[in-house]
Amino acid sequence: MLRTAGIKSMAKALRQALSDRKIDLSHSDCLELIAKQFGVKDWNALSAAVGQDAGDKPLLFSAEGNEIKFHRTTQRLDVNDTDLAGSRFNDANLSATSFNQINFSGAKFNDSNMTGWYVNDVNLSGAQFQNINLSGAAFSNCRIAGVTLDGVPLEDIVEAYRKAQMI
């Protein structure tokens, strides 16, 4: 999921990476290159696809053949009894989403908002969470063997918390 600010941040990161390699391009040039990566003519076309009022609205894109399609999503998800093992969630807004009896084993969550996430009877074994927001998330009856949070095994975090509570 992308947001307009995220696209501009991509251009900024590209400009910095190129500068580190002694290649100087303007921010505008980098926006044009990012637009090309999304398969559109130029920054104006990408900006139009995102929308002028998009500010902070989520934007999904998917590849369909040689075309990239943009989709806005704002609906709340309630997902039940689904196998999402090995799935990848990058820059996803999963806030206030409910998951019940889901297999997320080996799934990867990166740069995602999971505030208010409600997870019940979910297999998270081997899942990786990197740079995510779990404020107000609730986990119930979940399998967490091998889960890592920012590279730290979740079992270690839970153990450290329990020890701190005993003091």
Number of helices: 4
Strand order of the largest sheet: 4-6-8-10-11
Overall shape: it is elongated
- The radius of gyration computed from the alpha-carbon positions, rounded to a whole number of angstroms, is 19 Å
Please give the largest β-sheet.
Answer: 5 strands, mixed
User: What oligomeric state do these chains adopt?
Assistant: single chain
| SSE run | HHHEEEEEEEEEEEH
Structural class: alpha/beta
Helicity range: 25-40%
User: How much of the polypeptide forms β-strand, as a percent range?
Assistant: 25-35%
How many DSSP-defined strands? 11
Distance between the termini: 42 Å
State mean pLDDT (0 to 100 scale). 80
Given as residue ranges, the uncertain stretches (5+ residues, pLDDT < 50) are none
Short description:
The protein is α/β, with parallel strands linked by helices and 167 residues long.
Any overview of this molecule?
The chain has 167 residues and is α/β, with parallel strands linked by helices. Helices cover 29% and strands 26% of the residues. The chain has helices at 4-20, 27-37, 43-50, 154-166; strands at residues 59-64, 67-72, 78-83, 88-90, 98-103, 108-110, 118-120, 128-130, 138-140, 148-149, 152-153. A five-stranded mixed β-sheet has the order 4-6-8-10-11. A hairpin with a 2-residue loop joins strand 1 and strand 2. Helix 1 packs across helix 2 (27-37). The N and C termini lie far apart (42 Å). The mean pLDDT is 80.
